[in-house]
Amino acid sequence: MKLFLIRHGQDHDNARSLINGRRDTELTEVGKVQASDAARGLRSAAISCAYTSPLKRARQTASIVAAALGIPEPQVDSDLIERDYGILTGRPAAEIPVHAIRFTEAHGFKYVIEAPGIESYAEVWKRAGRFLQRISQQYPDERVLVVAHNEIAKMIRANFSGESWEDELRRPPLANGEVIALG
């Protein structure tokens, strides 16, 4: 299986540097352009099917990409939802040091390890692995598009590569609209 991961385009929280987690925000105009640009980069990829997070920003991105590629409307999969950020949800990213119990920084991105109500990286990694196992069994020889969020996409990549969540945090975050090919 070949997997193409896309982080959703910019949404209104991203534009304001807010931690959106599971807030259900829509794409900005910039985000729609990012989705179209991602689709242009995938025109020759021969993708057969697509999956998306249930959140609007990912569904909108996935619909734009699917329409441009002429593939069926993406299937919504709850395992692709963004990480629950607990107390940090909706707060400015600059407040991470104030509210997080523990975080680490890599490539200018603050990865929250522990905060009240946050979904642990071990849980996100496990959820990503469950999704990856399910689709690799269903589509072993196909090219699959997955539109999701930074944290879950990174954990899918870690599972695909046989790496731990700790290893994945040493890699840069995904930019809005960024495409990563695996396999």
Describe this structure in words.
- By secondary structure, the protein is α/β, with parallel strands linked by helices.
- Helices cover 38% and strands 18% of the residues.
- It has 7 helices and 7 strands.
- α2 (29-41) crosses α3 and α5 (121-138) packs across α6.
- The longest helix is centred in the last third of the chain and has 18 residues, at 121-138.
- It is globular.
- The model has no long low-confidence stretch (mean pLDDT 97).
Percent of sequence in beta strands: 15-25%
Strand arrangement, largest sheet? Answer: 3-2-6-1-7
Alpha-carbon distance between the termini? 7 Å
Helix and strand pattern: EHHEHEHEEHEHHE
State the major sheet. 5 strands, mixed
Domain tally: 1
**Residues in helix, %:** 25-40%
